[in-house]
Amino acid sequence: MTDALNKKYDALKEYIADLESAVVAYSGGVDSTFLLAVATDVLGEKAVGVIGRSPSYSKREQEDAIRLAKQMGARIHFIDTNEMANEAYNTNPPTRCFACKSILFRGVWKAADELGCKYVIEGSNADDLGDFRPGMDAAKKLRVKAPLVDLAFTKDEIRALSKEMGLPTWNKPAFACLSSRVPYGQPITLQKLGRIEKAEYALGDLGFSGLRVRDYDELCRIEVPSGEIARLIEDTTRAKVVRQLKEAGYKYVCLDLEGYRTGSMNETLSSQVKEDARAAGETGTK
Predict the structure, then answer these.
(1) In this structure, are residues 76 and 68 in contact, taking their beta carbons and an 8 Å threshold?
(2) How deeply is 268 buried, as exposed, middle or buried, from its count of CB atoms within 10 A (0-12, 13-18, 19+)?
């Protein structure tokens, strides 16, 4: 590590030590795992990772998160988010993420109160500030601290420190909730989430990573990193992909030749729609 990164890491430990006790909104991703690992190292039993159980949270991701927390010696606590019952979520407007994170963080705060923890912290980082992320507005509204944003940690720095700390997530591909695979305006249903999860499991079992299966009812649009497209369209692999994704529930299987990119569903939103969604977050619209 460079001296600059060492100083930033020391600043993070000081930041967390000043909290005295905290729950971490924990998903098992690169950022929240790093944050929970540091919080556990600094605060010990006064740090708790809270996992929100939801149909939009892949079962494999949840199982991996639990396993990893045990390996780190971190305390974990579970809440059920029940966002499927909320119209502001299940109708899937551009503000869906704001509604979802509002529900999640209220539940995490309730858990913090029950566990006797003073603060809630979450793993957004400085690179997230340039994207359309209404969920970050929800975090601010609900007084959730983002240490990695406050101290300007980039994703690359978090990965570098995670590797230094021996965390297996240091090179883990980014992952988002399964509802992010459904186009805005199309309802979120258990059936859709189930087939997305099954389809992404199938592709993962074939060795693909950093992938998304975007759901358009009978049709799905596969995104894999551009360097893996050639392997996917090789005859034998392509046949397996088509068969397994049809078994997951799709009638038509399509490949996005542009490859995987973060937040491709946001490409359909105009600047005005994004501004309106941000304004809704600022005024507390759920």
Answers:
(1) no
(2) exposed
25-43 exposure pattern, b = at least 16 Cβ within 10 A, e = fewer: bbbbbbbbbbbbbbbbebb
Spatial contact of 216 and 251, defined as CB atoms under 8 Å apart? no
Give the span between the Cα atoms of 265 and 225, in whole angstroms. 16
Q: pLDDT tens, 210-242?
A: 999 999 999 999 999 999 999 999 999 999 999
- Fold: same for 3-171 and 178-262: no
From the list 21, 6, 281, the residue with the least C-alpha distance to 142 is 281
Check pLDDT > 80 for residue 189. Answer: yes
Rounded CA-CA distance 120/142 in Å is 9
What does the alpha-carbon distance between residue 93 and residue 214 come to, in Å, rounded to a whole number?
A: 16
Please tell me the class of the 3-171 domain: alpha beta
